[in-house]
Amino acid sequence: MRGVVIRDSDGTILGCQAKKIQGSFSPFMAECLALRESLLFAKDCGICIQIAKVDATRVVQAVNCGDSLAEEGAVINDILELFSVSPL
């Protein structure tokens, strides 16, 4: 199960969702998938995401470096694409 809460700069909740992601994944891949699903949810709601708070340091490093190695690479690339096309 993964959950997301989207807040504005004042902390007001704009949207929230809980969703079960099917499959068996490494913790790193699960965190990557959770971030991607959260960004997709925001996009579907028409919410522009400027900052994403993530507990997983490796995911933050991978996104900041544009790291696209191994099986997680496609998911990291999706995350980067979602940030680049976020509505203003």
TrEMBL record:
| A molecular-function term among this protein's GO annotations | nucleic acid binding
| Location of the RNase H type-1 domain | 3-83
Q: Name one Pfam family in it.
A: RVT_3
Signal peptide location:
none
Q: Domain of life of the organism in this record?
A: Eukaryota
The family database entries (InterPro entries) matched by this protein are listed as: RNase_H-like_EbsB-rel, RNaseH_domain
Protein name per its UniProtKB record: RNase H type-1 domain-containing protein
